[in-house]
Amino acid sequence: MEDSWIKYAEDFTSPEGEVLQSLARECYANYSNHSMLSGFFQGRVLSMLSKMIQPALVLEIGTYLGYSALCFAEGLAPGGKVITLDVDEAAQKVAKSFVEKSPLADRIEFHLGPAAEVIPTLQGAFDLVFIDADKPNYTNYYKLVFDRVRPGGFIIADNVLWSGKVLRKDKDQDAHTRALHAFNWMVKADSRVSNVLLPIRDGLMVLRKEKA
After folding, report:
1. What is the CA radius of gyration of the chain?
2. Which of 138, 153, 156 is nearest to 57 (CA)?
């Protein structure tokens, strides 16, 4: 039944563009870790959120093949930019090749290197931050970017349900699960934000910075 209503939801969702379709085909055909791709439905959600927020500056921690960066770029304010970070040079090369095929290419800026080292070198206040990188560092990334997010800005974290593993008892959780569960608790306890955990795909934590 669940697969049926997910398929129904997808059928009644606006289609992705040709570049994203091509990127998804490339990923599913040639990458065993294709679950790392945001994919069609989640991508349309990210695009819609970006269009609602209309950010001038987006920071993405974890590029992979560039799918989500392209989705966020669809909703940028005039003159806006997506800055996307990753440590995987090979994956970033593929991401660049697909972004270059898009009319949004000049609105996406790539950086290669550890996020903790790159972020302090970036200029400006972020309207939207997307965290989709190494799970044990989610809390660290949150703390690193929080003061750089403008009041009223947003942070979105992917994979926060971790295939349902966050429901397991503490003793049955692996290190990644414990880190994500701790991240979810931290967000819930943070009085500076309002948040909603959306059970879309592997879980999207969406939070709005209400105060510094």
Report:
1. 16
2. 153
Q: What is the CB neighbour count within 10 angstroms for residue 211?
A: 8
- Name the pTM for this structure: 0.94
- For 49, the token pair is 């959120």
Strand-strand pairing, 204-209 and 149-158: antiparallel
Count Cβ atoms within 10 A of the Cβ of residue 172 and give its class: 0-12 exposed, 13-18 middle, 19 or more buried.
exposed
**Domain range summary for the chain, segments of one domain joined by +:** 2-209
Topology annotation, domain 2-209 = Rossmann fold (3.40.50)
Given strand 149-158, what is the order of strands in its sheet? 108-112, 81-86, 57-61, 126-131, 149-158, 204-209, 193-198
Closest CA to 71 of 91, 53, 89, 86: 53
Helix (H) or strand (E) holding 57: strand 57-61
Beta carbons within 8 Å of 56's beta carbon, 6+ residues apart: 76, 77, 79, 80, 81, 127
Count Cα neighbours of 113 within 13 Å in the Cβ-side half-sphere.
9
Instruction: Tell me the H-state helices in the chain.
Output: 2-11, 18-30, 40-53, 67-73, 89-99, 115-118, 138-146, 175-189
- For the stretch 63-116, pLDDT in tens is 999 999 999 999 999 999 999 999 999 999 999 999 999 999 999 999 999 999
Sequence length of the chain is 212
User: Which of 5-9, 55-59, 71-75, 123-127 is least confident?
Assistant: 5-9
